[in-house]
């Protein structure tokens, strides 16, 4: 069985312990080191995708925790994925949402299976496991899953 590679890294140069390279994805290349604007909800506040591209960004960062809660995975999936929803056609990196879960303090309960908490958006009970975080990121169409 042949496994399709979704990412490739080419080393372009080094200087001491620093290195420069290109990460290639089906949606485009990212030169490293990279400027990665934070689009917590999939978009960078106050900027269009064209403006983000014009400042030299080839990748943006979205937050799984926040996107899962608002607008929600189902809403995003109605448009295709996060790329379609935001009209950003270059790579997107999403984090696991773990930092945000830990920042909830006493509002969360951690077990071997995952974490239960109340949504800071609407107070609904939410459970997030490593598996569900990965599924949300797959549903979002993330190019880099953290």
UniProtKB/TrEMBL annotation:
Matching InterPro entries: ArchSynthase1/Queuine_TRR, TGT-like_sf, tRNA_ribo_trans-like
Cellular component GO terms held in the UniProt record: cytosol
Ranges of residues in domain tRNA-guanine(15) transglycosylase-like: 17-146
Keywords: tRNA processing
Protein's UniProt keywords contain tRNA processing: yes
GO biological process, one term: tRNA queuosine(34) biosynthetic process
Domain of life: Bacteria
Protein name in UniProt: tRNA guanosine(34) transglycosylase Tgt
Gene symbol of the encoding locus: tgt
């Amino acid at each position: 069985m042949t496994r399709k590679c979704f990412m490739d890294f080419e080393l372009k140069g080094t200087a001491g312990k620093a290195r420069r390279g290109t990460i290639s994805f089906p949606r485009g290349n990212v030169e490293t080191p990279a400027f990665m604007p934070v689009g917590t909800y999939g978009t960078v506040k106050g900027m269009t995708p064209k403006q983000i591209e014009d400042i030299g960004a080839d990748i943006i960062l979205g937050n799984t925790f926040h996107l899962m809660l608002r607008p929600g995975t189902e809403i995003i999936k109605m448009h295709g994925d996060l790329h379609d929803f935001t009209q950003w056609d270059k790579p997107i990196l999403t984090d696991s949402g773990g930092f945000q879960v830990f920042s909830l303090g006493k509002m969360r309960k951690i077990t071997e299976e995952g974490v239960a908490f109340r949504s800071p958006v609407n107070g609904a009970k939410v459970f997030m496991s490593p598996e569900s975080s990965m599924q949300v990121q797959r549903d979002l169409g993330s190019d880099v899953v953290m």
